[in-house]
Write a structure and sequence with these properties.
Layout: H1 9-16, H2 35-40, E1 45-47, E2 50-52, E3 58-61, H3 71-83, E4 90-93, H4 97-102, H5 122-144, E5 151-154, E6 157-160, E7 166-168, H6 169-176, H7 205-210, E8 225-231, E9 238-242, H8 244-248, E10 253-259, E11 263-268, H9 271-280, E12 283-286, H10 295-304, E13 313-318, H11 321-326, E14 330-338, E15 350-356, E16 359-364, H12 369-380, E17 387-391, H13 405-415, E18 422-425, H14 428-433, E19 441-449, E20 455-464, H15 467-471, E21 502-509, H16 523-541, H17 546-552, H18 558-571, E22 582-590, E23 593-604, E24 608-619, H19 626-645, E25 651-652, E26 655-656, E27 674-679, H20 694-709, E28 724-725
Parallel strand pairs: 3-4, 8-18, 16-17, 20-21, 24-27, 24-28
Antiparallel strand pairs: 1-2, 2-3, 5-6, 6-7, 8-11, 9-12, 10-11, 13-21, 14-19, 15-16, 15-18, 19-20, 22-23, 23-24, 25-26
Helix pairs in contact: 1-12, 3-5, 5-6, 12-13, 16-20, 19-20
């Protein structure tokens, strides 16, 4: 156990509490940590990233969260590559945010979202591995009394080249822990990778398939009690009163507690007893004015925002789009919309908390350990040296576990029962009705052609929610949400892939009471539908092939064009499709990566879609584990196609109507198309892979649907138009 120095609670909370899926904290990454701490570790810690046991087992510490996306394995590959260790002896562990803060944030950013797990930490974790290698080599050289320059490391063996002497990492690890870390560390050229860049098996697969893996929902602690919670179903509503007498008389119930100002929880010996008592207990809510809100009133408000006379933030512009539209030979206009979407992770939200007067610990699956830590400090009222968060494997996250509401509830309940571990588990209904949802948006698009059918202007006007306004208002830029323009920006990690002489892209920010959140893929999901489906509409209006029309606008966007060409070639674009099969295509940029998809579908009875095949291309710059990237692409299509057909949350009397999987469906295995992935890393940049390809799934299928039927579908989900998978 590390001896954690005292840290003022407020100093940390002020810097870290108001966190969405990421922390806006600057940090320096040292690779050693205090020497006394390193030397005291048993087995010895070579540096913050690497622990090596006497049997040569290599423990690589991973600060990011694993929720099925493969980041744990990918980061371990990067460290192991520079460490030159035996991959067959690699295992991993999570450090805690309390330990990290006590050591000047030695492990850096704990947040895992926005497909940033590898792309924003690759350099310093690689340096962690390289630094440990040099320290091990120096320790061996010291023992042999030879220059370190005469020694090399490979496969966990250090060799003194002139004499042929060898030793293992495990034999010199304790001595290496006392070596002064080098300050000048050179990283390998990716072309020389032997472990990274390879499609190695994931490190967590065996434990998951054998049932050994422990998720938050599985955790058991001695003397633990279980809690079920119910919050006001209307966002913004309050808890008015409850009658605990009925609950306290039921089997196993230990206590009924108020949780903040909007919820009540029952604590019992088992979760089912807690939930049953909670369901039986009379509760009165003060639902407030938001109880008048419906999907219809929200839609009306967002539609009003599409009026050019309404105020809007300009996110991207060049030329004079309005003048070009006014003088156009011909105009094309369309209005699209995208709904609230629920994260619907397989594991409902949960956290276990143990509070005493001088210690508060939390065990949970979280996408942001430091945000959970900050929440624990704030609710417990204890300083940082008396708190910690123990991260457990996540049963799905998708952005939802970047929030800390469930952690705050667990600590608040445990604080009312000091000395007793309390496991809080949300019911599926609570999880579905108290989320932070994919933001709802509408979009009006207008394109202008000259007399020769050249696209001269494009005006795209978004109306809808801002995630940053809700979760990270400090990240707004003069009131504007830059993230609302993901995939439509002039530059950056999610830039538009077309050049149009006159362009105007704006956002009329309108924020209903239902809270938005970072939902896997976030704003590129709807922005790609809007732009890529409208590009198809423009191509059709101009009487041009959809791919050729795009290519003319992409000459200054070679990486976008490369992935588009790759899927077009592999799908056989320009050659006849099989009888009754129709094709659609889309491309976009998100999270620093370039992606495209081409779909082949058939339509029966006008409303049943069979997606036969999707070809997907991704250029992430560097591919740390190509096999895992292929799995992420396929998995992202499950998410994207589910959202297209089945997704969508509706609002009635201020609350979310969909409460379980009977009303919020997910695509089944028999509905899943064949996915052919093209991983084409071009080097020179680091892009994400967990989220980008979601965004091209829906527009590729929607464009194929138009090819099949001649009908444009501009509203999602398709279930509301009586369209389903065949």
């Amino acid at each position: 156990m590390l001896n954690l120095p005292a840290l003022n609670r407020r100093a940390f909370v002020v810097g870290a509490a108001a966190v969405g899926s990421g922390l806006a904290l600057g940090f320096d990454i040292p690779f050693g940590g205090p020497e006394a701490v390193r030397a005291a570790e048993i087995p010895p810690e070579v540096n913050a990233w690497v622990v090596i046991r006497p049997d040569d087992t290599v423990v690589i510490r991973i600060a990011r969260s694993e929720m099925g996306q493969g980041t744990l394995t990918g980061l371990a590959q990067l460290v192991a590559e520079e460490l030159e260790c035996d991959w067959s002896k690699v295992t991993t562990e999570y450090p805690t945010p309390g330990q990290s803060v006590a050591r000047k944030r030695v492990w850096g950013d704990f947040s895992t979202g926005g497909s940033r797990g590898i792309r924003t930490s690759h350099e310093y974790v690689r340096k962690g591995g390289a630094t440990a290698r040099l320290m091990l080599i120096q320790a061996a050289a010291n023992e042999w009394k030879v220059p370190a320059s005469e020694c090399t490391a490979a496969n966990s063996i250090i060799t003194h080249t002139p004499s042929g002497r060898t030793t293992s990492f495990g034999k010199v690890a304790e001595a290496a822990a006392k070596v002064e870390p080098p300050t000048d560390v050179k990283l390998k050229d990716p072309k020389d990778w032997k472990i990274a860049g390879k499609g190695l098996k994931r490190l967590d697969t065996v434990d998951k398939t054998t049932g050994k893996m422990i998720y938050g929902i599985d955790l058991k602690l001695p003397g633990m009690l279980n809690a079920a919670v119910k919050a006001c179903p209307v966002f913004g509503g309050k808890l008015k009163s409850f009658d605990e007498a009925k609950a306290m008389g039921m089997k196993g119930v230990k206590k009924v507690v108020r949780v903040n100002d909007n919820a009540v929880a029952v604590v019992a010996d088992t979760w089912w007893h807690a939930k049953s008592a909670l369901e039986a207990m009379p509760i009165v809510w003060d639902e407030g004015e938001n109880a008048r809100v419906t999907s219809a009133t929200i839609a009306k408000w967002l539609d009003e925002g599409l009026d050019d006379a309404q105020p809007a933030f300009i996110g991207n512009q060049n030329g004079d789009a309005k003048a070009a539209l006014a003088g156009a030979a011909r105009k094309v206009e369309a209005v699209y919309n995208y709904p609230y979407q629920n994260h619907a992770a397989m594991e409902p939200l949960n956290a276990t908390a143990l509070y005493t007067a001088d210690k508060c610990e939390v065990w949970c699956g979280t996408q942001n350990g430091e945000a959970a830590f900050a929440a624990t400090l704030e609710v417990s009222g204890l300083p940082a040296d008396k708190c910690d968060v123990h991260k457990i494997m996540l049963g799905g996250g998708f952005g939802r576990r970047g929030q800390t509401d469930y952690v705050r509830q667990a600590v608040a309940i445990a604080k009312q029962m000091p000395g007793t571990p309390i496991k809080l588990l949300w019911s599926r209904e609570e999880d579905m009705q108290h989320g932070t949802y994919h933001p709802i948006t509408h979009c009006k698009l207008t394109g202008a052609f000259d007399a020769d059918n050249n696209l001269t202007a494009l005006h795209l006007r978004l109306s809808g929610q801002s995630i940053l306004f809700s979760l990270r208002p400090e990240a707004l830029v003069n009131g504007m949400d830059p993230a609302a323009f993901q995939g439509l920006a002039a530059s950056g990690e999610a830039a538009i892939g077309y050049s149009v002489p006159n362009l105007l892209i704006e956002h009329a920010m309108r924020n209903p009471h239902v809270p938005p959140g970072f939902w896997r893929g976030v704003n590129v999901n709807h922005n790609a539908i809007y732009l890529e489906c409208f590009m198809d509409e423009l191509a059709h209006a101009a009487g041009q092939d959809a791919v050729e029309f795009r290519r003319k606008l992409m000459t200054k966007h070679p990486k976008n064009l490369a992935v588009l060409n790759a899927v077009a070639e592999k799908i056989g674009w320009g050659t006849p499709a099989p009888q009754g099969v129709y094709r659609g295509i889309a491309q976009h940029m998100g999270y620093g990566s370039y992606v495209a998809a081409a779909a082949e579908i058939s339509v029966s009875d006008g409303n049943k879609i069979k997606v036969h095949r999707i070809v997907a291309a991704t250029d992430p710059g560097y591919a740390v584990n190509p096999a895992q990237i292929e799995r992420q692409i396929a998995g992202s299509f499950v998410y994207g196609l589910t959202g297209l057909i089945y997704g969508g949350c509706t609002v009635k009397d201020g609350y979310i109507e969909q409460t379980n999987f009977d009303t919020y469906n997910s695509m089944r295995i028999n509905e899943m198309p064949k996915v052919e992935s093209i991983v084409m890393p071009s080097g020179g940049f680091w892009g994400g892979v967990g989220e980008p390809t979601i965004c091209v799934a829906a527009p590729a299928v929607l464009n194929a649907y138009f090819a099949a039927t001649g009908k444009r579908l501009r509203s999602v989900p398709l279930r509301d138009q009586n369209i389903s998978f065949a």
